[in-house]
Write a structure and sequence with these properties.
This protein is mostly helical and 70 residues long. Helices cover 76% and strands 0% of the residues.
């Protein structure tokens, strides 16, 4: 997740999103990673995908407010 955050801070949202995909493919499906995917998808204009990512986080962690407000 650190590499993903670093890429995003450098303005490399697409690269960060690719890193998220790699982490997911490797089996990391943490809520933080899924929320980061939603944020990055939103950043690059992939709004429908972002909505699906946030919906997945909200489904898995209904008490996590971040998922409901993004």
């Amino acid at each position: 997740l650190g590499r993903i955050v670093a890429l995003a801070r450098e303005g490399k949202a697409r690269e960060a999103l690719s890193a998220v995909a790699e982490s997911l493919a490797a089996g990391d499906d943490s809520l933080e990673l899924l929320a980061a995917r939603g944020h990055l998808e939103f950043e690059v204009g992939e709004f429908e995908q972002a909505e699906r990512s946030y919906a997945e986080v909200a489904r898995r962690a209904p008490d996590l407010l971040t998922a409901h407000y993004n």
